[in-house]
Amino acid sequence: MTLEDHAGDIVAKARTAVGVSVEEAAALAGLEVPAYCRFEQTGQGSPSPRFDRLAARLGLHAKRLAAIAGGWLPRPHQANRWHELRQITTREGMAVNSYLVWDAATGEAALFDTGWEAQPAVDLMGENGLELKHLFITHGHHDHVAALAPIQRRFPRAKVHTGPPLVPADPQSPAGDVVGIGGLRVMARPTPGHSEDGTSYLIQGWVGNAPPVVVVGDALFAGSMGRTVEAAFETAKQAVRKQILSLPAATLICPGHGPMTTVGEEKAHNPFFA
Questions:
Q1: How many CB atoms lie within 10 A of CB 241?
Q2: How far is the C-alpha of 265 from the C-alpha of 1, rounded, in Å?
Q3: Which domain holds residue 117?
Q4: Is the bond preceding residue 171 a cis peptide, omega within 30 degrees?
């Protein structure tokens, strides 16, 4: 799985979030405006040998940005090696990830976001003999909740948990509440910024030495973060630092788009969080 954001995407997100014009960014990059715009759109064509001036203006780490431009990827993570966890990727113009988690001893399951369609999650639950007890929503953007209605029709007893009530749900799961899935424990951690209702979910209690898991929606991607408006940029970064990057380094990060990563990898490689 490729990164959700190439180097041009990262620069574009940072530029709009801090209110820098295309013209200023192009000048810092030493490029004509058309060439700079092509870089933002495609990630191709380094705007400067080391990104230094542009990265400094945008609050990005230049060497990390250059590494992503050079092809950095997080190491492959096979969640099923340690966890009863499956990443489900559905596509309708764009790919989005949802995650099915369950307790092997009881067969109780939870779905984190729904993606575009319900059937892949339904099939996985059938194959593993699981009962859906909970549905956790990271935020209310359409690609993450498109299959909410059919999932609720199929599993009417499953409890829906969200952040602030931008997605209809009853009951809600306020930050700090602990929800059990068999022997697993899920705690909501508020991560607003990309969306007002942004919520990440920390999952602990795995058997053996399996590390914790945090499902983050669009708060954080491998090497990047979710797009924000200028007024929410610092809020988003502070939430990620406090609620996600403060977790143990081995914690597996499950984003709404792109590959899985870990807290340690993001602390070492994400240009937004030097």
A1: 13
A2: 16
A3: 79-269
A4: yes
Tell me the sheet residues that pair with 136: 112, 161
Distance CA 148, CA 10 (A): 30
Q: Are residues 25 and 84 in the same domain?
A: no
Is the pLDDT assigned to residue 165 strictly greater than 70?
A: no
Residue 154 lies in a domain: yes
**What is the C-alpha separation between 172 and 160, in angstroms, rounded?**
7
Give, as one character, the DSSP assignment of residue 225. E
Question: Are residues 126 and 97 both part of a single domain?
Answer: yes
Longest alpha-carbon distance in the chain: 61
274 occurs within a structural domain: no
Q: Are residues 142 and 216 in the same domain?
A: yes
pLDDT number for residue 228? 92
For residues 138 and 195, what is the distance between their CA atoms, to the nearest angstrom? 9
What is the number of structural domains in the chain? 2
184 and 48 in one domain?
Answer: no
Strand order in the sheet with 199-204: 178-181, 184-190, 199-204, 213-217, 252-255, 261-262
Residues 83 and 253 sit within 8 Å (Cβ to Cβ): no
List Cβ<8 Å contacts ≥24 apart for 116-119. Answer: 116/90, 116/91, 116/92, 116/143, 116/146, 116/147, 117/90, 117/92, 117/146, 117/147, 117/150, 118/147, 118/150, 118/151, 118/154
Residues 51 and 177 in one domain: no
Which residue among 44, 69, 94 closes a domain? 69
- Nearest CA to 14 out of 265, 247, 230 is that of 230
**Is 26 inside any structural domain?**
yes
In this structure, the answer to whether residues 158 and 63 fall within a common structural domain is no
Task: Say whether pLDDT at 14 is over 80.
Answer: yes
Is 2 inside a domain boundary? no
- Rounded to two decimals, the pTM is 0.93
